[in-house]
Amino acid sequence: MDKNGDFRFLKALRGEPVDCTPVWFMRQAGRYMKVYRDLKEKHTFLELCKTPELACEVTLQPLDVLGVDAAIIFADILLPLEPMGTGLEFTAGDGPSIPRPVRTRKDVEALKPVNSEEQLGYVGEAIKLVRGEISRKMPLVGFSAAPFTLASYMVEGGKSKDFTTTKLMMYDESDIWQQLMTKVADVLVDYLKMQVKAGAQALQIFDSWVGCLSPGDYQKYILPHTRRVFEGLKDLGVPVINFSTGTSSMLPQIREAGGDAMGFDWRIHLDDAWQQIGHDTPVQGNLDPNILFAPIPVIKEKVHDILRRAGGRPGHVFNLGHGILQHTPVDHVKAVVDMVHAYQSK
């Protein structure tokens, strides 16, 4: 909270001046922290996500340690897949897998509509618990995948390096692709509305894999569906961050899809990205997560470079260009928070 009694994170997302740059981190709660690893020895990942008390505990773990300006609810972008009927499993070392991938018209037609309050209500309950703990300290961010990222997991059956199966559906069976994306977008809007109703004060939509596409393919196959999600959230009264990775070549198209703020990765300088999308749009980013393993003087140099590029302009939230990596030193993450808060724009 800034010295005027408002949350500087929310003020920055509104493009308003703040007393210092707000900072939080994607995956700020997770396996780089010993308290999380200790809890993980007793519970599976899905148990942590589906048990509101545990999800609340994990969400709170890094807040006082790091001194960040926002919390993000502990969950996973793939949780909507289970009620949709594809199944969802997490295997140690291998990540998520989808037991019933979606690859045919019949598969798409078999996908179920989702009532998020009933079927994903554990996320809402966790949000309520966290708000009860931090309501006067900092705001809480809810989130989901973007339509392409969620759909690509469904089609590929898990992670992918080349997304060949997904692209072939887009190109060869575009009517089936459009039907899939429509169903996914509907589920995501309902899911995000539920999170805001439960108490989320900002939202972030993760398009983690959309950088595998060309700007033209994004414009044709993805943008209309992503825009539908953002338009479906307009009346909620909370800021929504459009975050994507690998999209330096198509930031104007990403901006066209919607969102109150844009987050991007480290593959483009922050000032170059901001100029492309327009300075009237707040931005979030964009330190390479690997920098957090470097010596403190190197980290400081990189952090200050990003802040210098922001130029003290209202509307900047400091974050990484993706989530905190496993084995990242906690004291280095804390040091970044202190550097950002102490920085004075020249």
Structure characteristics:
17 helices; single chain; 48% helix; 346 residues; seven-stranded parallel β-sheet; alpha/beta; TIM Barrel; two-stranded antiparallel sheet
Total number of beta strands: 9
Number of domains: 1
Cα-based radius of gyration, to the nearest Å: 19 Å
Largest sheet: 7 strands, parallel
Structural class: alpha/beta
**Separation of termini?**
23 Å
The helix fraction, in percent, is: 40-55%
Which series of helices and strands comes N to C? HHHHHEHEEHHHEHHHEHEHEHEHEH
CATH top level class name: Alpha Beta
The 3D shape can be described as: globular
CATH topology: TIM Barrel
Strand content: 5-15%
Number of helices: 17
